[in-house]
Amino acid sequence: MKNYWVLFLITSACLSCSPNIQSEDDRPNIIVIIADDAGYIDFGFMGSPDLKTPELDKLASRGVIFTDAHTSASVCAPSRAGLITGKYQQRFGFECNAIPQGMGLDLKQSTMGDALQSAGYKTIAIGKWHLGNGPSYHPNERGFDEFYGFLAGARSYFYNKNEDKKGSPKAILQNKQRVDFSGYLTDVFGNKAVEYIDLYKKEPFFMYLSFNAVHTPMEAKVEDLEKFKGHSRQELAAMTWSMDQNIGKLVHKLEKEELLNNTLIFFLSDNGGATNNQSDCGPLKGWKGNKFEGGHRVPFVLSWPAQIKPGSTFNGLTSSLDIFATIDAVAKTEQSGLDGVNLIPYLSGEKQGNPHPSLFWRKDKMAALRKGQFKLVRLEDYGYRYYNLAEDIGETTSLETIMPDGFSNSKEDLELWERDLVSPSWLEEETWNQVTYEIHQALMENRTPNYVNPRQMTRYRKRTKK
């Protein structure tokens, strides 16, 4: 039996920790680490049989592994908008991925940076931003004292003269100033994280460390590629290894400075694995961009040695939205209107069961609902599927005719949630909408999609016309 199935057989552990929120003088440092487009099982602590992640495995062993954790979107930018605001991004129109020039994260929304900055934390953002390129959307304008990274959704991992130029959203910025860099970008971000801890170690700090690994382009250092020579997923293995080593570098710095014990660390991927980066979602159906479990169910770790018992697993229905709600509780930022839930009482044993009775997703014509172990998927102008994940984690057998009451109730719940949403502020390119629609329809029919990108769609349509 493959290793990843072990995750579905582990019983939720009752974790012993003090349920009391700490005093203001003893509030934890907070670090949110995001991987980009990582597959559900592509880490050792998630059961990967071939990718090596010793540093993340160690971090997971010091904390809690969440097996049923989800992002609020299955693509990068909306997922990050939900994470950083703690709200379903559809509430403020950030539903789709391709952000038009001059637009970005709704300026009326508060970010984690805003909240923690106001609470006296030094706030730092490193890496990929992808929440708007315009001046008003810059991290320094959204609650972050320090920013080192790029504004776009992807870029090369090495210096690139076409990207690293003035005015390019792919250029590396230190705050608002373009800077040159040398070496491998994952290392650069890891080194910068260590530098900022050295700079701000004597005051409470919040670090939003957003790696672009393992998003395409599939680029790695020569020595890391050599380390995984002959590996069936050589580039991904090398890129994952580098990210893991840099996370380890950060954790070792915290240990050296005697900060690790009272640092609350979250690690997760921004969405499911992509079709073009060699990732593996294990037993889950689907991948980045669709509403099946493989699109939004992600690896998720919480570590806080001072408060959370190490080496445990939590199987309750959890969301990336819970990160802000948990931070709000432990840092006393007094935010309102958050859609997430403070996870600490569930990890202390003070509360039992699922943090969320239901979770919701929507992007243009595709929507979904998780209600406990049941999953509803909707494709506009096509229909619905209804699954029991406890018996069918791969979402293969639809139960709408077998369980009509549960199916009907789930439809009503999804429609009720949508009443509070606004129309998308923008839509994605029509070609990608057509591709995504085909993928959804194919997965609902349990068949292989005819195409998974616009180039394949063009070729397929030319071929089938003959």
Rounded to the nearest angstrom, the radius of gyration is 21 Å
How does the helix and strand content classify structurally?
alpha/beta
Number of strands: 16
Examine the secondary-structure arrangement and name the CATH architecture of the largest domain: 3-Layer(aba) Sandwich
Characterize the largest beta sheet: strand count, sense, and whether it forms a barrel: 10 strands, mixed
Overall geometry comes to globular
Please provide the ordered H/E string of secondary-structure elements: EHEEHHEEEEHEHHEHEEEHHEEEEHHH
Assign a percent range to the helix content: 25-40%
The mean pLDDT is 94
Number of domains: 2
Beta-strand proportion = 15-25%
Weakly predicted, low-confidence segments? 1-23
Question: Between the first and last Cα atoms, what is the distance in angstroms?
Answer: 45 Å
CATH level 4 superfamily of the largest domain = Alkaline Phosphatase, subunit A
Strand order of the largest sheet: 7-6-5-4-8-1-9-10-2-11
Q: Which class of the largest domain in CATH terms? A: Alpha Beta
Short description:
The chain is built from twelve helices and 16 strands. It has 466 residues and is α/β, with parallel strands linked by helices.
Spell out the key features of this protein:
Alkaline Phosphatase, subunit A, ten-stranded mixed β-sheet, 12 helices, four-stranded antiparallel β-sheet, Arylsulfatase, C-terminal domain, alpha/beta, 16 strands, 466 residues, disordered N terminus
